[in-house]
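Hi W., the alpha-L-rhamnopyranose complex you wanted:
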Amino acid sequence: PYTTLFRSMAQITNHIENFEMNINEDFVRKAQELEPALHYKTVRPAQLVSFQPSDAPDKPNDWDLPVHNRADRVFDWIPCRMQPVEALDTMPLSKGSSVCLDFGTHHVGYISFRLTPAGSPPDAPAHIRIKLGEMPCEIMEDTASYQGSISSSWIQEEYLHIDEMPARISLPRRYAFRYLELKVMDTSPKYQVLLSDVSCDTVTSGDMSQVDPLNENVPEDLKRIDAIALKTMEDCMQSVFEDGPKRDRRLWIGDLRLQALTNYETFKNYDLVKRCLYLFAGLTQNEHHVGACLFLRPAPMVDDTSLFDYGLFFISCLHDYYQATGDRETLMQLWPAAYHQAELALKRLDGRGVVKDSGDWWCFLDWNDSLNKQAGAQGVLIYTLRQALSLARLMCSETSGAESVKQLESWIETAVRGALEYLWDKELRFFISGQNRQVSWASQIWLVLAGVLDQESNRRLLEHLVKEDPPVGMVTPYMYHHFIEALIQNGMKDTALHYIRFYWGQMADLGADCFWELFNPRDRYASPYGSRIINSYCHAWSCTPSYFIRKYFN
Ligand code: RAM
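Structure:
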C-alpha cells in the first residue's frame, strides 16, 4: 500500500534529484499509535550568574593535551558573581542592562516569566532580548558574528515587544538550555522592569524511574559519566528519539541506532524504538531507500537527505531491536524494508567488490572534512550485511527466506574479498581508502567492526592504529563510540575504558551537563558548521557511555 508523492525541488534542499516520498500508510499509522506520553515538570532557576572569559593559559592535563581540566570552568568561561534568584526582586533593569539565570543543569522545555514595571507608568513598550544557551558561549558570543554554514535560526535568541505590564509571558518555542539571559533593549527613561517568577515546564518521554542504579562498586568517575549520558538520553527522548533538542530536533537514523542501544540498557522504552522503526519504513525515498532523517511536524515526512551508511543502519536498528525484544511480528513486517536497503547498497559495489567512492556527502561516518569514506563505507556495508544475514536466518523457517540467506552470504563474501584484496595494505598494515590510499582512524575501525580480519589481527590492527595515530582522526562522539565498540569486541576492554575516560571524561571535566555533538580534544573550538555557538551540547549520539558502562563495566 504505497502512495507516491512528488515534491518540487524548489521547496526542499537538493540532496536527491526528483525526490519522491513513498508512504506506507499502515506503517505510519502504527507509528502514530505508538506516540509516547510526554512527562512535564516545572523547574526554576538556581541562581544568577555572570561569566568571565578565562585568560588562564592552557596547561597540559592528565592526558597531556592542552585542555582545561578544572571543574570551575564551563568550556573556557568562568562562572562568577553568583547571586540568589531573590536578588531579582531588587534589581530593576533599565535600557542596556541584562541578567543571566542559571537553571543549574540542562533542560528542555517551555519558558515563562513575569515582567513588572518599576517607576513611572510604562509610557512605551518594553523591548527585550532573551537568549538561551546550553553553554555560556551561546550567551556570551555575539550572535551577529555567526557566519556558519547552517542556519542562524537555530540560535536561541528572541526579541520581544511587551506592550502591557505587568505581564506573564510564555515563550511559544521549546528550548534546550541551562542559561537564560534577559537584556533590556529599551524601556523609556521613566520606567524600568523587574523580572520575576521565571520557570520552565520541562518535557521528555523518558522515564528515569525505569533506569536501574549502577552497582555500588562502579568507580565514581564512571558513575558521573553515566549520569551525564543518562541526562543526555532523557533530554533527547521526545516524541521520537531526537538527535539534539536544540538542533536538529529530529529523528536521524545514525543517532537512533546508538540511542536505541543505550535505551535497551537504561530506559527500556522499546515502543519508542519501534515507533521510529515504523516511521523510517513507512516514509521512504526514491526506490524505497530509507532516508537519513525524518520530520514529524506538521506531518511525518522523510527528508531528502540520503546517506549510504544511514540507509544501511535501518538493518542494524531492526537487528538490535529484535535482539532486545524478540518482537517477531515487527521483525516480519519490517524485514522486507531492511533487506531492500542491502539490495540498494549493493548497487554501489564495483566489479572488484569494493564500494565506489564519490563526493563528500554520500556516506556520513564522521564530521571530518578530510576523511575519505570508501573504506569506512565498505566496513559499514559488511557489518550491516552480517546483521541482515542473522535476521534472514531467523526468517528462514517461516517464509521463503532461504534465497535471501544465500544471497546475503554471497554478498558478504564478495565484499570481504574486495576489502582484503583492494583495501588492505600489507606493507602499511592498515586499510587504505580512496584513490589517494588514505589511512584514517574511521577506515580501520569500521573494517574491524566488519570482522574482515580474525580477532587476533583485529587486535594487532587496533594497537597499531593507537600507536601510529594517523592524522585523519575522529572528531565526534559518534565515531569514538565505534572505536570503543571495536576495542571491546576484540577483547580490549581496558583500552576501551581508558578512552571512555579520555574522551567523555574530559567533557565531564569541562563542565558538561549533557554530552556534546562534537568534541575534539585537540581543538575545543572545532565545529563542522563554522562556529561553536551552533553546535549542539546535548546530543544523542554522545549518550553511549551508559551503554558501555552498563553492559560491560557494571
Ligand atoms: C547532524 C545531526 C545528526 C547527524 C547528522 C549526520 O546535523 O545533528 O546528529 O546524524 O548530522
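The two ends are 46 Å apart (CA to CA).

W.
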